[in-house]
Design a protein that fits this description.
75 residues; mainly alpha; two-stranded antiparallel ribbon; 2 helices; 2 strands; 8% strand; globular
């Protein structure tokens, strides 16, 4: 279930992520997604971890992070 807090609905999954943690969560989710999909290890960077920065990759990362945010925070 969910409850109302200040007119904004929070899901049971997002109750621990308040305003000071939201941007951190987006960033970590995006970095984990990049690691899983493109093999870039942000915790242990290596010169070999290179991905050509194309618009397609930027769109992919932005879309994935946005969809995750919408799921977590009920749009």
């Amino acid at each position: 279930g969910s409850y109302m807090s200040g007119g904004v609905g929070f899901t049971q999954y997002a109750t621990a992520a308040y305003t000071d943690n939201i941007l951190d969560e987006f960033t970590y989710y995006g970095m984990d997604y990049a690691k899983d999909k493109y093999g870039v290890d942000w915790k242990n960077p290596s010169p070999n971890d290179k991905v050509k920065p194309t618009q397609e990759i930027v769109n992919d990362l932005a879309t994935e992070v946005t969809l995750n945010a919408m799921e977590q925070y009920e749009q």
